[in-house]
Amino acid sequence: MTTPFQFFHGDTPLAVHVHRDVDNLTERQPAVIVTGSWLTVKEQMADLYAARLADRGYTVFTFDFAGFGASGGTPRHAELPARKIEDIIAAARTVSTLSYVRPGAVAYLAVCASAQYALRAIARGAPIASFASVAGWYHDAESVAPFYGGEQGVAMRLARAAEAFEHFQRTGEVRTVPAYENGNDRAGMSFELPYYAEPGRGAVPTWANEMAEFSWAYWLTFDGLSAAAEVSVPTLFVHSEDAVLPDNLRRVASTLAGPSEVVWAEGTQIDFYDQEQQVAMSVDAADQHFRRTLS
C-alpha cells in the first residue's frame, strides 16, 4: 500500500510516498528512507526499492527533493548538494517522530549519487541508525572530472554555469538543459544511459528531464568523500567493479568511523537502478543489514 504524505524543510513542502504492508497505524515498524540518483524523482529507482522493502515489513518513505517532481522549492531542477543534504536531515527528523515507526529504528538506503549526500547528512547528525549504499556514487573534483572530458570539459561546463548564474541574477530565469540526452554535451548526462531514455524504465511521466545549467558549479566541486570519517553508524555498501568509481567506494568504506561491510556484485551502474538480478540482490543484502543493525 502506497499513500501520499508530506515532509517540510522549513516552509518548503516535500512530496512523499509512504510504502507500508499493513493498514494498522498502531503497528510500529522499522523505517527506511530511500532516495535515488541525481536529477531524479521518487517514481524512478526509489519507489522500486521501497516497494520491495515494504513487502519485508518496513515502513518506507520516498520523497522528491526540493525543486524536483511534486515538491515545492525554487530554483527548479537544480542539483544543489547542500540543499539535498538538508532535505535528508529534515526527512529523517520527521520520520523519527511518527508513532508507527519503531523508536530509534530509522534507516536509509541510497542508490547512486544520493549516497554521498546521505553520508554527509549522517555526519551532520541526521537521526539515521543504519545506512545502505547501493551502487553509491562518491566523488570529488578530481575523480568526477574524467566523466566530463577532464580539465577542459570541466572548465567548459563551469563557464556555462557562470553564464547561467549571470542570466539568473539579471533576469530571475533559471536556464535549463536536458538532464539526459545522449551525445549532447550540455546535458547533465550525455553518454548512453538507456535507463533514462526508456518509458518502461526511468523515463517516467513525473520526471521532467531538466537540469538547471548552473548545477555544474555545485556538482563538479562537491566533496563526497571526506564526510566518511565522521560517520559511525553501521553501513552496508553493495557495489560492482563495473559500477562507478569503485576505488572511491573502497576509500569511503575504509575511512568510516563505524562498522562497514562491502558486498561485491555483478552489473553496470544502471543495472542497479531497475534490473531484477541487481535489485533483488541489493534488497536481500539491505534487509539482512537492517535486521541486524536495527534490532
From TrEMBL:
The keyword Glycosyltransferase does not apply. Keywords: Hydrolase. Gene3D superfamilies: 1.10.10.800, alpha/beta hydrolase. GO terms for molecular function: hydrolase activity. It holds the Pfam family Abhydrolase_6. The keyword Hydrolase applies. InterPro entries: AB_hydrolase_1 (IPR000073), AB_hydrolase_fold (IPR029058), Polyketide_trans_af380 (IPR051411). Residues 34-271 form the AB hydrolase-1 domain. PANTHER family: SUPERFAMILY HYDROLASE, PUTATIVE (AFU_ORTHOLOGUE AFUA_2G16580)-RELATED. This is Alpha/beta hydrolase. It comes from Tenggerimyces flavus.
